Every structure is written in structure tokens, then in C-alpha cells.
Amino acid sequence: MSFKSSDNRATLHNVVGQPLSFLETLLVSLVAQDLIHGLLVQDPKRRITYLKGTTKIKQHPFFEGINWALVRRITPPHVPDSINFSQFWSKEKKSAKSGLPGGNTWNKGNPNDLVYHEFEYF
């Protein structure tokens, strides 16, 4: 299932209101799907972590073969390059009319908030 829709509100409705499903074109193992389903249950009392917390996640078949006692000592197969997050914000003030630079009127945030570029609010 694709959550994308014609506008932000419809997309949010799809994310929150539609049942979780996996696209057939994505190769996600049944064990991985089971773990993801268990983590994303809307009712917190029915989530995989409700009774035993992270212990239940660690015991899930998806993580079979992981030695959790040694996991902090294992060298990861890939360490991504660091990101300079300052490129995503500035200290310019939002426009008083809209709460956002450029006159967008769909979000009326606090005019004292920092502006976050490349980020959409619902």
C-alpha cells in the first residue's frame, strides 16, 4: 500500500487510518513483516513490547542469531557519513501572516519558531 495521496491531510489519514500492508514488489520476509506489524499495532496494550518491553523484540525470530550481550562491541558493516543538520534550519523568523516564510497559510505556527526548510507540516 502506498500512503501518498493528493494532499497532506489525505496522506496523514492513510498513514493513521489504513491497515498496514506491504507492496508485493518489495521483498520483505514474513518474519520481518511480523515484527513490523507487532511494533505498529495502534493499541499500545496489544503491541509486541507491551508485556516484556524490548526483551520481546530481542527474542523475535527476526533477530535470531544476534548476541545482544556483545552487540555494542560489534563493528557495523557500514557507518554512514555524518550530516550537517544546520543546513535544515535558519534563525529567520516566520512571517506573521502565515507562520511560514513565503506566505503559505495552511500552518499557523508560533511566529517565534525557527524555520525548518524541506519539512512539511500537516
UniProtKB/TrEMBL annotation:
The molecular function GO annotations come to: ATP binding; protein serine/threonine kinase activity
Q: Which SUPFAM superfamilies match?
A: Protein kinase-like (PK-like)
Q: Which InterPro entries match?
A: Kinase-like_dom_sf (IPR011009)
- Keyword check for Ribosomal protein: no
Q: Which keywords accompany this UniProt record?
A: ATP-binding, Kinase, Nucleotide-binding, Serine/threonine-protein kinase, Transferase
Q: What is its EC number?
A: 2.7.11.1
Q: Which reaction does it catalyse?
A: L-threonyl-[protein] + ATP = O-phospho-L-threonyl-[protein] + ADP + H(+); L-seryl-[protein] + ATP = O-phospho-L-seryl-[protein] + ADP + H(+)
| Protein's name in the database | non-specific serine/threonine protein kinase
Source species of the chain: Zingiber officinale
